[in-house]
Specification:
single chain
């Protein structure tokens, strides 16, 4: 829960976060997705800085829409996508119902997640889901990607997009 911490963050501190986040966008790994050419995903992420806990809570709200022709019985059952490395407290749900989500692969640059939908997705159907996790400040050298303290907050913010997909 955010509480009042973010509301008290000064405008210069918020500007610093935006600048640091924009700088972190360089060199992002590709975002793999199960049936990428047949699945459209539109989402939005919210980043909540929690300095007293040494972490940033990330909440992703997304809608997946099947573009896979199911005339031959094929359906989509889930999606794979990448998020920042070294995450903790991973959970997923759809309209309040927990979903299966696993860490498929971890690397220094990213964490690949596998999310299973609550039911098969047929052509034209959409499925809403949320994914929540924390980016944790592990401490150490000042040059680390995630630094969360009272005077400095730095963390990577990611964004992906595809030509021709609105949102």
């Amino acid at each position: 829960m955010l509480g009042h911490t973010a509301a008290r963050m000064s405008l210069p501190a918020r500007a610093l976060i935006v600048v640091l986040a924009a700088a972190a966008l360089l060199g992002l790994p590709p975002a793999p997705a199960r049936a990428a050419s047949t699945l459209e995903v539109v989402g939005a992420a919210t980043y909540r800085v929690l300095p007293d806990l040494g972490r940033v809570h990330v909440a992703i709200e997304a809608t997946a829409t099947s573009r896979l022709s199911d005339s031959d019985g094929r359906v989509l059952t889930g999606v794979n996508f990448s998020v920042q490395p070294g995450i903790a407290n991973l959970v997923a749900s759809s309209r309040g119902t927990p979903l299966e989500i696993t860490i498929e692969r971890q690397a220094d640059e990213f964490t690949e997640l596998g999310l299973t939908f609550g039911h098969p997705l047929h052509f034209g159907e959409s499925y809403d889901y949320t994914v929540d996790f924390d980016m944790v400040d592990a401490g150490g050298a000042a040059g680390r990607d995630i630094r969360i303290g009272r005077s400095v907050v730095a963390f990577p913010v990611w964004a992906f997009g595809s030509a021709g997909v609105s949102g």
